[in-house]
């Protein structure tokens, strides 16, 4: 069970940041109307608003590099919590930005997962 | 509702790090047998093992300073997810350590919350 949770968490993280770096408008498929994003303290609710925020980020090309992924089963919901740390390289910028992000994933009726909770913070040294 | 979630999250964070800095053996009261802690990639399950890990950390005195607290309602459980960033000053060390930590809190039958999921990571620049 615990091993499966780690595997699911890692698969989600790989998928999420691959979409983010390749075509971040496609991330909207991972959110639902109940989903919440807090991005550097700003709150967004629902796949539409979250997707609009992600599309509006002030850069076109970026590349995430993941440092750590920690996953746990979230009791009572069949969900998973995933905690990620890594860095974000923006095209044309010299230094990557360090970030931390957490996801609370819930199962869909199709046996996949969607993002119920998403909290993103840049790490300031 | 959202304001209440922020207030609950902040109250929990204040309480948690106050206990941590004042008498971290008392943190065991915030965990239950189902609780999970991942501390720098090491996994612990249940209040007893989690409490033992926290007591065994290789420092006696520390002081947390919180930089950001982001809280969201966690669907379907009546719970809350809380994401914290801050720094940890160890007695006798010159530089504080930056960290990020997430909690998934679930309600108890007494109307309070316990920690179901806890993931802690130091931030490396």
Automatic annotation (TrEMBL), chains A, B:
Residues 8-122 form the NTF2 domain. CDD domains: NTF2. InterPro entries: NTF2, NTF2-like_dom_sf, NTF2_dom, Nuclear_transport_factor_2_euk. Pfam families: NTF2. The keyword Nucleus applies. Keywords: Cytoplasm, Nucleus, Protein transport, Transport. It is found in: Cytoplasm; Nucleus; Nucleus envelope. One of its GO terms (cellular component) is cytoplasm. PANTHER family: NUCLEAR TRANSPORT FACTOR 2. Has a role in nuclear-cytoplasmic transport of proteins and mRNAs. Facilitates protein transport into the nucleus. Interacts with various nucleoporins and with Ran-GDP. Could be part of a multicomponent system of cytosolic factors that assemble at the pore complex during nuclear import. This is NTF2 domain-containing protein.
């Amino acid at each position: 069970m615990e091993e499966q949770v780690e595997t699911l968490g890692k698969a989600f993280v790989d998928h999420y940041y691959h979409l983010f770096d390749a075509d971040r408008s496609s991330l909207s498929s991972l959110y639902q109307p109940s989903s919440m994003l807090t991005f550097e303290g700003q709150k967004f609710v629902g796949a539409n608003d979250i997707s609009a925020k992600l599309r509006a980020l002030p850069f076109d090309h970026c590349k995430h590099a993941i440092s750590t992924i920690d996953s746990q089963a979230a009791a009572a919901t069949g969900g998973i919590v995933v905690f990620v740390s890594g860095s974000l390289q923006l095209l044309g910028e010299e230094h990557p930005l360090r970030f931390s992000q957490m996801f609370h994933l819930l199962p869909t009726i199709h046996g996949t997962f969607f993002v119920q909770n998403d909290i993103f913070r840049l790490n300031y040294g």
